[in-house]
Amino acid sequence: MPRQPEDVRAVSLKTAARFDRFYKLLACAALIFAFAPLVYTFIRPVAGDFTLPIVAGIAPALFIIGYGLQAIFGAVTRMERTLYSRTYEKLESYFTPAKAALPLTLCVIAGFAASSAFSRFYKSGALGYYERASALPLFVGILTVLFLAAGVIAWFYPPGYIVSLHTAFVYLVIFLSDYGLNIVFQVSQKFLAACFAGFLLCAIVVANQTHIVTVINTAGTGIVTPRVRYYNLISVGLLALFAVLTVPVVLAVFIGLAVLVKMLLFFILRERYISPEEQMLMDAGEQAAVFGKTVYGFEEINQSLAKLLFLVFIFIAIGTMAFFIISRYRNILQTIINFIDALFANLLEFLANLFEFNKFSTEKFILSDYRDVETKIDKSAVREYTGKKPQQTARSYRDFLRKLESIADSRERLAFAYAELVRCWDKKYGIRLKSSDTPAEIERKILEVSADTAAEPITRAFEYVKYAERYLPESESAKLIDAMCAQIKRAYGD
Predict the structure, then answer these.
(1) Handedness of CA 162, 163, 165, 170 (dihedral sign)
(2) Are 483 and 405 part of one and the same domain?
(3) Chain-centre distance of CA 243, in angstroms?
(4) Residues 6+ apart with CB under 8 A from 399
(5) 244 belongs to a structural domain
(6) Are 320 and 214 within one domain?
(7) d(Cα 316, Cα 320) in Å, to the nearest integer?
(8) Both 316 and 341 in a single domain?
(9) Which residues contact 417 (CB under 8 A, 6 or more apart)?
(10) How far is CA 237 from CA 18, 194, 227, 243, in A?
């Protein structure tokens, strides 16, 4: 029976070779998409209507020819390209001019030939005009050399180097530069947008697959199986499909933001759009027309579509804010209700204690308040030890006992007694307790300023109940409470 691991590795390596060729194709396509808009912008004033055929057809064809030329040269001379380490440390030297001296020389010769051929074509008057001192033939020759040489050089580099985090910044600068040049030279941004979309699609696929292989090879934990490659490729495809489907939403957001900015500028710089004299001569309808043309006027889309997209943007903005508020403050209503309930309970309890109206100190308020204390002790484990005056601070030892006896649950009784004891310790010894202090830390601070022998056993027992979440036997619980009550009684001076 054949060994399965070797079979899997062999299949994976064969698939990897095919995938590498596919990724190299995408990487080269991304490279063309990145530089094509810049070439389009520069040759547009010269080539006119021939710009798009040159950039979309001739330039990629020259790139492919240069790539193929180097591939043939490499196969004949049995040239081995520097292997891609597939790690995060890319220190390899992939290309030197000496490795492609002959193909680069042929590129220069082809450039001279293209310049000469175009010169004869130009002189024939086929373009409808001719200037003796024109630099067009030289320009054609230079572009030919550049496109061919780009293909030659690209042959040496792996796809993970052509498209990577190191080159992402370069591509970003290229696209932003071309965007600015298009504004300066008043060139449409449509070709740039199309190339940018194509670049993103190719770059995402290459970057995703390169990252997978890099992570696995760096970790040394296995091999990249075809299943993993196909799964990630399908995932990227679905992501790209989702991006395409969300284009209308993205367009609505961009148009909406642009309309808002235009509105703001219109109201701030109103006199630049409509002079005071014109405002006096124009009725409301004419002023509205000027407003609509200024705010909703875009070169690529008409005003009706801009208004529709702006309306969609408004709905998106409202929905986003509503979602944020609901998700961020989903319990806001309950919080308000709890606050109001606590406010009235505290007010009634305050009045009852202030005027000693024991008839107001009903079981309802006592139980509600002690449940709150128990929750804070069990869940936050902090607030009850801060030494701050609690809501149900006893006015006397007798008042403390009355409140303690009203609590039925033994853990709640322990928690209430310990919270009162900590408050008494703080008042007696003048120690500064922090919200982060644990029972052990409180004990340490007390022992630093006193020789209270009761602090240690009380702390151990309370930690057992609190952190271990265990119930003490009834007898042990009663002894612990009695010990704390003795400490509290001395603090009150009763």
Answers:
(1) positive
(2) yes
(3) 16
(4) 353
(5) no
(6) no
(7) 6
(8) no
(9) 404, 481, 484, 485, 488
(10) 18, 18, 15, 10
Task: Report yes or no on 237 lying in a domain.
Answer: no
With respect to residue 409, please indicate whether it lies within any of the assigned structural domains: yes
Q: Shortest CA distance to 103 belongs to which of 82, 73, 147?
A: 73
Q: 214 and 279 in one domain? A: no
Round to whole Å and give the CA distance between 161 and 30: 12
Give me the tens of pLDDT residue by residue for the chain, a chain 494 residues long. Answer: 444 444 445 545 666 678 888 889 999 999 999 999 999 998 888 777 888 998 999 999 999 999 999 999 999 998 888 766 555 445 467 888 898 999 999 999 999 999 999 888 888 877 777 787 788 889 899 999 999 999 999 999 989 889 887 888 999 999 989 988 888 888 888 898 899 989 988 988 888 877 777 766 665 555 666 676 677 777 777 776 776 777 778 778 888 888 888 888 777 776 666 666 666 666 667 767 777 777 787 766 777 888 888 888 888 888 888 877 776 666 666 667 777 777 777 777 666 666 554 444 444 443 334 344 343 333 333 344 433 444 455 667 888 888 888 887 777 888 888 888 888 877 777 776 665 677 777 878 877 777 766 777 787 777 766 665 566 777 777 888 888 888 888 877 75
Strands (E), 71-170: none
User: How many domains are contained in the chain?
Assistant: 4
Residues 6+ apart with CB under 8 A from 370: 392, 403, 406, 407, 412, 416
Residue count of the chain: 494
Q: Look at residues 210, 225, 240 and tell me which one is the last residue of a structural domain.
A: 225
Same domain, 182 and 267: no
Contact of 209 with 216, CB cutoff 8 Å: no
d(CA 433, CA 478): 27
Quick one: 311 and 323 in the same domain? yes
The reply to whether 293 and 408 lie within a common domain is no
Whether residues 403 and 291 share a domain: the answer is: no
Q: From CA 234, how far away is CA 410, in angstroms rounded?
A: 60
Both tokens assigned to 56: 């979309």
Domain final residue pick, 328, 346, 378: 328
Tokens 């990227």 locate to 236
Return the residue matching tokens 């709640």.
412
Q: Is residue 440 part of a domain?
A: yes
Class of residue 346 by CB neighbours under 10 A (exposed 0-12, middle 13-18, buried 19+): middle
Residue type, position 206, single letter = V
> Which residue range is the domain that position 414 belongs to?
363-492
